[in-house]
Amino acid sequence: MAGVGDPGYIGDPGYIGDPALLAARAADPRGESWTACAARRAGSPPGRGGEADGRAPDKPRRGRGDRLSKPVMVSGSGGKSGRVVSFQRGLDAWKLVVSADGIGGETAIGDSIAVNGCCLTVVHAAGGNLDFDVLEETRRLTNFAALRPGSQVNLERSLRFDGKLGGHFVSGHIDGLGTIETMETRGSDTYLRVRAPAGYGRYLVHKGSVAIDGISLTVAEVDGDAAAVWLIPHTVEVTNLRDKHVGDQVNLEFDLLAKYVEKLLASRT
Asked: Global pTM?
């Protein structure tokens, strides 16, 4: 997985609108990025970039390599939660350090981890902490700008296809920020209503799926660009939703299949 803005991001027409590119990328054993694949087919080298654009950096960096842009999935099942140790600007990227005792011991440099639903690459792992490089573009387009030391974040390892799929396919490519309009306890459960960016209501379907901060949830109500979901006590207890309030922003990723269908139908008109 790569960050927001990678050509693997579903909003990029080169990713879902070019069957030849899809076939070339799927058949390539080297695991190159979408940008590198497109550049190779076009006969030109990829430019300078990093996590947010999927292009190979000019020189090797700690823990980075061709794994950076490999498209992988998570299930949105909630995974584990962690706490932000620090999040500050570095020389070449923002540096995010997360205390992740639940998965830190099983994680190696180069692994992909969904943090609040946004896929990041581990650049250092030690003592139960995971370090990530976050580009300004990723910070700007997600709710990472609100992260502070002590903030709770949702963590999920990349999906293994020989394991269980507890939610739905979540790519880790954030579509936009939603704003919590309602969050209240009703009986033993919690009612959560989130307003998506204008125009994204077309991806919201009653009884369909949406990922909120990386958590796969079933849409209970749709009202234009707003959607409501119900949370069982366990979901609130083990995720960062327990720290959320009305007005807070959450990362949203809409159903991958809906975006494929929209693109395919548009190409027929």
From this structure: 0.69
> What is the C-alpha to C-alpha distance for residues 257 and 40, in angstroms, rounded to an integer?
28
Domains, the chain, in order of start with CATH, read 82-156 (2.40.30.20), 176-264 (2.40.30.20)
Q: Strand ranges (DSSP E) for the chain?
A: 80-89, 94-99, 112-115, 118-126, 129-134, 152-157, 176-186, 189-195, 209-212, 215-223, 226-231, 249-254
Give the bridge partners for 180, in sequence order: 194
Nearest to 185 by CA among 253, 241, 251: 241
HSE, CB side, 13 Å, CA atoms: give it for residue 46: 22
* H-helix segments, the chain: 13-16, 19-27, 34-42, 136-141, 233-238, 256-266
Sign of the CA dihedral with 78 first, then 80, 81, and 86 last: negative
User: Which token pair is 97?
Assistant: 């350090």
Band of residue 79 on the pLDDT scale cut at 50, 70, 90? low
Tell me the mean pLDDT in the region 194-221. Answer: 95
Contact 101, 139 (CB under 8 A): no
The number of beta carbons lying within 10 Å of the beta carbon of residue 256 is: 19
Count Cβ atoms below 10 Å from residue 31 Cβ, excluding itself.
14
Tokens representing residue 98 in the block:
């997360």
Contacts of 239 by beta carbon, 8 Å cutoff, 6+ apart: 78, 81, 152, 154, 213, 215
